Amino acid sequence: MSEPTLYERIGGAPTIAALVDGFYDRMDAREEARDLRALHREDLSESRRSLKNYLSEWLGGPALYSPEKGHPRMRMRHMHVKIGLAARDAWLACMRDALDETVSDEEARAAIYGNMAKLADWMRNVEG
């Protein structure tokens, strides 16, 4: 018997949808995320869909991202955007609060946030 994936532990697609929506809602609303929000299109529909698909696959659920877009290559896909400490921190603050709101499994939430923090730091491509 195998261990459940993080995707299964958090409740699957409905939780991922709530997580992503909560994340982007926070990015829209928070002053400290204003510059981060400005890096995105006005209409976040495609960003929301893409992140939901990515997280589904990344957390061990259905492969929804790679069949459509290929290997994630997240850093390469974001190189056209200047990502420094402030953008990383704003992204993580919005995501942490969305995780706190949507993921009740504390161990799963901590594991997801820890991995997201590593990814967010690796995405930085400018100093400061």
Write the layout of secondary structure elements.
Blueprint: H1 6-10, H2 13-29, H3 34-38, H4 45-58, H5 66-69, H6 74-77, H7 85-102, H8 106-122
GO molecular function, one term: oxygen carrier activity
Family: Belongs to the truncated hemoglobin family. Group II subfamily.
Protein name: Group II truncated hemoglobin
Written account of the structure:
InterPro entries: GlbO/GLB3-like (IPR044203), Globin-like_sf (IPR009050), Globin/Proto (IPR012292), Hemoglobin_trunc (IPR001486). One of its GO terms (molecular function) is oxygen binding. Pfam families: Bac_globin. This is Group II truncated hemoglobin. Keywords: Heme, Iron, Metal-binding, Transport. This protein is mainly alpha-helical. The protein has a single domain, classed as Globin-like (Orthogonal Bundle), CATH 1.10.490. It is 66% helix and 0% strand. The protein is built from eight helices and no strands. It has helices at 6-10, 13-29, 34-38, 45-58, 66-69, 74-77, 85-102, 106-122. Helix 2 crosses helix 7 and helix 7 (85-102) runs antiparallel to helix 8. The longest helix is centred in the last third of the chain and has 18 residues, at 85-102. It is globular, with a radius of gyration of 14 Å. It starts with 5 loop residues before the first helix and ends in a 6-residue tail after the last helix.
